[in-house]
């Protein structure tokens, strides 16, 4: 039996026995796995943690770097009209007035007076809609969905409150309907820059990386000599004081975004929006995420800057959740920065012989959510028999070799010379090409298991025969198949599998 998240979901009932874990149990297993095997830790763990802030461990940082690298290559190498930048986290405070974040980067929140817990009003309503859907109450589901869409469209906080009351939505902790009014809550973190602590020194931790691109639009266009249509890509930290921060690295207060703003001629934004929707979906498919687990979700309520927007959602064990947004941001941001700075942010189009403020299509993906998606896709349990015929579960991470934190582990069969020397010689020879790991402790089976759990695609065992035939036993993670291969061939075998070009060619 194989519990393989990148095939069919638990609710499809395939590949899973009656004892297969439920979606949230599976999610919990993945969260525990991430901590136990050095992928993600709670921030300040020894101080009981800081809510919704996480650190990446030794394997996590490698996986995260590999994912970021793939995105960066897909954006800046495959597209000759996209270049990168790395803007600072702090920006002039007026940037956030111009962008609209000071006035309207808000979430509607509501408190339960009995439990004193705070919730996002739209999210507890969405939860209720899911509950109606699961219990087959179609009419209630439809009417609540319509009510929510209408209230969000009009920013009507009283209407949201009304829906919560009418549908008797209870606080999951206190089980009461004793709610406060719905209020808006600004998600930006602020701090003071310099030694004077007054209003003029207030700066914000950027809530999105996009504005660093907009304010550099002309700098980049001129110095990189870009012609519209062209894009600017950037990866970096963003900060949001989320009202409710749950579900592990899905919703964090400090997270990383990978964003690309694509500047186009006014009037062509609709076709470029469709182009980038398709391109980004292909990118997810090229990384190996099955099409059945991905879908688009069109926005009903558009952000103040957008004329069209859709999310790419992935089916996590706990349901479909947003991973990436594709937004047609119009010329809003550049025009606002023009208005606030009184400086022109225009492009002189040599073909049209016209000057204009370009329209923008944005692709914005959360690196941490992509990381979680990758772990969920990779987490695999297979059931076989142990030596006594009893049931035995093998767990491994079926990571694409290009993403795996370690590419090849080298094991001398026993902790003795001259096997150690030959093992270290192979390690020293290959370490310049990819991430290699050497280990001589513990039984060989145990060493294989440790690598399976972190997704290492290959293990090479050095034995006494190796001294004679200059071969090692190469073990493949997914199949556990073992093959005798020449030491001299190891580099090519691994290089071929970890190459990102096969992935990039599929996009
Ligand atoms: P959500 O509706 O889930 O709050 P959003 O629509 O506000 O997300 P965007 O502003 O479009 O998100 O940001 C782009 C991407 O950044 C999202 O698709 C998501 O992957 C990621 N992201 C946004 N907020 C967070 C967060 N608090 N923690 C982790 N990733 C986030």
| Coarse shape | globular
Q: How are the strands of the biggest sheet laid out side by side?
A: 4-10-11-17-14-13-12
By DSSP (H or I, 4+ residues per run), the number of helices equals 17
Q: Based on helices, strands and strand pairing, what is the structural class?
A: alpha+beta
Q: Average pLDDT value?
A: 91
Over all CA atoms, what is the radius of gyration? Answer: 26 Å
Q: Assign a percent range to the helix content.
A: 25-40%
Strand content: 25-35%
Q: Quick one: biggest sheet? A: 7 strands, mixed
Poorly predicted parts: 1-19
Task: List strands and helices in order, with pairings.
Layout: E1 2-4, H1 23-36, E2 40-42, E3 54-56, H2 58-76, E4 82-84, H3 94-98, H4 101-104, E5 106-111, E6 118-120, H5 121-134, H6 138-153, H7 157-166, E7 183-186, E8 189-192, E9 202-205, H8 210-215, H9 217-223, E10 230-239, E11 254-264, H10 269-286, E12 294-298, E13 308-316, E14 319-330, H11 332-341, E15 347-349, E16 354-356, E17 359-366, H12 367-378, E18 379-385, E19 391-397, E20 408-412, H13 419-430, E21 436-438, H14 444-454, E22 458-462, H15 464-469, E23 471-476, E24 482-486, H16 490-498, H17 501-506
Parallel strand pairs: 4-10, 20-21, 20-22
Antiparallel strand pairs: 1-18, 2-3, 5-6, 5-7, 8-9, 10-11, 11-17, 12-13, 13-14, 14-17, 15-16, 18-19, 22-23, 23-24
The structure holds adenosine-5'-triphosphate.
Offer a concise description of the structure:
The protein has 17 helices and 24 strands. A seven-stranded mixed sheet has the order 4-10-11-17-14-13-12.
């Amino acid at each position: 039996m194989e519990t393989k998240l990148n095939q069919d979901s638990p609710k499809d009932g395939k590949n899973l026995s009656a004892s297969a874990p439920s979606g949230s149990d599976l999610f919990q297993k993945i969260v525990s796995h991430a901590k136990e095997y050095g992928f993600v830790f709670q921030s300040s763990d020894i101080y009981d943690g800081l809510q919704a802030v996480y650190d990446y461990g030794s394997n996590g940082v490698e996986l995260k770097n590999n994912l970021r690298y793939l995105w960066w290559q897909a954006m800046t190498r495959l597209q000759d009209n996209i270049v990168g930048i790395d803007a600072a986290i702090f920006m002039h405070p007026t940037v956030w007035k111009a962008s609209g974040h000071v006035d309207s980067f808000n979430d509607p929140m509501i408190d339960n007076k009995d439990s004193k817990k705070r919730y996002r009003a739209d999210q507890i309503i969405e939860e209720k809609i899911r509950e109606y859907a699961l219990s087959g109450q179609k009419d209630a589901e439809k009417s609540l969905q319509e009510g929510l869409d209408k209230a969000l469209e009009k920013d009507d906080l009283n209407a949201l409150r009304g829906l919560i009351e009418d549908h008797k939505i209870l606080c999951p902790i206190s089980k009461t309907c004793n709610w406060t009014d719905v209020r808006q809550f600004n998600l930006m973190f602020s701090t003071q820059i310099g030694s004077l602590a007054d209003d003029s020194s207030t700066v914000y931790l950027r809530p999105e990386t996009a504005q660093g691109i907009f304010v550099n639009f002309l700098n980049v266009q001129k110095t990189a000599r870009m012609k519209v249509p062209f894009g600017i890509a950037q990866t970096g930290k963003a900060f949001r004081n989320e009202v409710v921060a749950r579900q592990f690295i899905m919703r964090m207060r400090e997270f990383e975004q990978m964003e690309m703003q694509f500047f186009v001629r006014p009037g062509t934004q609709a076709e470029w929006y469709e182009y980038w929707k398709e391109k980004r979906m292909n990118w997810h498919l090229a990384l190996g995420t099955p099409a059945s687990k991905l879908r688009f979700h069109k926005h009903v309520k558009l952000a103040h800057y957008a004329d069209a927007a859709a999310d790419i959602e992935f089916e996590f064990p706990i349901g479909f959740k947003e991973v990436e947004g594709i937004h047609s941001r119009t010329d809003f941001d550049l025009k606002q920065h023009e208005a606030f700075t009184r400086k022109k942010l225009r492009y002189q189009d040599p073909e049209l012989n016209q000057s204009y403020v370009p329209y923008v299509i944005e692709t914005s993906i959360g690196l941490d959510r992509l990381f979680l998606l990758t772990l969920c896709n990779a987490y695999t349990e297979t059931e076989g028999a142990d030596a006594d015929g009893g049931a035995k579960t093998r767990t491994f991470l079926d990571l694409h070799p290009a993403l795996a934190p370690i590419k090849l582990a080298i094991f001398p069969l026993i902790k003795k010379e001259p096997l150690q020397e030959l093992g270290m010689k192979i390690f020293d020879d290959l370490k310049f090409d990819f991430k290699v790991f050497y280990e001589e402790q513990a039984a060989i089976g145990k060493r294989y298991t440790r690598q399976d759990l972190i997704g290492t695609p290959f293990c090479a065992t050095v034995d006494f025969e190796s001294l004679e035939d200059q071969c090692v036993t190469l073990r493949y993670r997914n199949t556990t198949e073992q093959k005798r291969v020449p030491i001299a061939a190891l580099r090519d075998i691994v290089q071929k599998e970890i190459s990102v070009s096969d992935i990039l060619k599929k996009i």
